[in-house]
Amino acid sequence: MPKLWYRQPAACFEEALPVGAGRFGAMLYGEAEAELVRLNEDSLWSGGPRERINPDAKESLGEIRRLILNGQIAEAETLAFQKMQGCPKDMRHYTPLGDLTVRLSLPDGEVTDYLRTLDLSSAAYSVKFRKGGALFSRAVFASHPAQCIILHFTGEQPFSAVLSMDGRDDDFDRNCVLIRDTQPILVFDGCSGGANGIAFCAAIRVIHSDGKAYRRGNTIVAEHIHEMTAAISMHTGYYHPDADLLQLCDADCLRASALPYSALLAQHTADYRALFDRVSLTLPDAELTDRIPTDTLLESAKAQHTDACNALLALYFHFGRYLMISGSRPDSLPLNLQGIWNVDMWPAWGSRYTVNINMQMNYWCAESCNLSECHLPLFTLLRKVMENGKQTAREMYGCEGFCCHHNTDLWGDTAPQDLWMPATLWATGGAWLSLHIMEHYRYTGDLAFLRENYDIMYQAALFCSQYLIENKQEQLVTCPSVSPENTYQLPNGATGSLCAGTAMDSQIITELYTAVIEADALLGLHSGLIPLLRVQLPKLPQPTVGQYGQIMEWAEDYDEPEPGHRHISQLFALHPAHRISPRNTPMLADAAAATLQRRLAHGCGHTGWSCAWIANFYARLQDSAHLYEMLCKLLCHSTNPNLFDMHPPFQIDGNFGGTSAITEAMLQSAPDGLTLLPSLPAEWHTGSFHGLCGYGGFSLSAKWRNMKLTDAAVTSKNGGICRLYYPANTKLRLRESDFMRKEAEGFLEFETVPAGVYHLTAV
Question: Is pTM, for the whole model, over 0.90?
Answer without folding.
Answer: yes
